[in-house]
């Protein structure tokens, strides 16, 4: 059984570890584990030889409803309670109901008010209505907002800058470090950013928001290392997003 009603502790420093292929070969595991709290997402593993690059500790794991089956397949590794890991599950109410009619599972509490707050936050930061734009907020969005509430300083590992995939010579890495033959990260980002038929994430738009937050909050990006440039005095985040078309990499 997974305990979900634990009080989340406040952390002075947090390592927010993405699932990006950029982490492979970086040797950041020791630095990641040095943080007071280590935050991971979905079914991203720490065993199987990945520890040197992604660390071994997990304080908090944020899991999307769509990743639940993959997590259960690796439950002996990912749901190991010996680390006192706290698990946060999120998803639409049709998947998270506790009355036996949920499409995925029924024994976990959904904070509907929190979900609505995150939708409102996305619209406030980007000027885009998530539902009208037919998109889903990513697990990364939920995880970053949770980290902002819990952590004084956030060190993010594996997250690229918003304009990374616009570069003609950007590095090609797998979307997930533990799926080396999986889709290319930038190809996935561009496909989702351009998608208009629903079930898409706005990965690049979200990264624009994260970069903006890093100008105000104690957020730092590693592997790759980057810092957001200051916005010109006459430019807002919304205009910056609108002026940043995505250019696919030439083959």
From TrEMBL:
It is found in: Golgi apparatus membrane. It holds the Pfam family Glyco_transf_29. It catalyses: a ganglioside GM1b (d18:1(4E)) + CMP-N-acetyl-beta-neuraminate = a ganglioside GD1alpha (d18:1(4E)) + CMP + H(+). Keywords: Disulfide bond, Glycoprotein, Glycosyltransferase, Golgi apparatus, Lipid metabolism, Membrane, Sialic acid, Signal-anchor, Transferase, Transmembrane, Transmembrane helix. The keyword Metal-binding does not apply. Belongs to the glycosyltransferase 29 family. This is ST6 N-acetylgalactosaminide alpha-2,6-sialyltransferase 5. It is a single-pass type II membrane protein. It comes from Labrus bergylta. One of its GO terms (cellular component) is Golgi membrane.
């Amino acid at each position: 059984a997974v305990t979900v009603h634990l009080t989340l502790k406040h952390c002075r420093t947090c390592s927010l570890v993405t699932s990006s292929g950029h982490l492979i070969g970086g040797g950041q595991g020791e630095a990641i584990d040095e943080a007071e709290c280590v935050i991971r997402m979905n079914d991203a593993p720490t065993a199987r030889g990945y520890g040197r690059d992604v660390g071994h500790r997990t304080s908090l794991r944020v899991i999307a409803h769509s990743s639940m089956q993959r997590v259960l397949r690796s439950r002996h590794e990912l749901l190991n309670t010996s680390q006192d890991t706290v698990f946060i599950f999120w998803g639409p109410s049709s998947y998270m109901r506790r009355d036996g009619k949920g499409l995925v599972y029924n024994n976990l509490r959904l904070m509907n008010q929190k979900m609505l707050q995150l939708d409102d936050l996305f619209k406030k930061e980007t000027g885009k209505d998530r539902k009208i734009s037919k998109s889903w907020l990513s697990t990364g969005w939920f995880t970053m907002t949770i980290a902002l509430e819990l952590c004084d300083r956030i060190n993010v590992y594996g997250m690229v800058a918003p304009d990374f995939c616009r570069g003609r010579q950007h590095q090609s890495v797998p979307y997930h470090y533990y799926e080396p033959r999986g889709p290319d990260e930038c190809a996935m980002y561009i496909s989702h950013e351009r998608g208009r038929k629903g079930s898409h994430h706005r990965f690049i738009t979200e990264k624009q928001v994260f970069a903006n937050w890093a100008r105000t909050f104690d957020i730092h990006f590693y592997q790759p290392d980057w810092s957001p440039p200051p916005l010109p005095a006459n430019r807002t985040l919304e205009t910056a997003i609108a002026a940043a078309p995505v250019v696919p990499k030439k083959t």
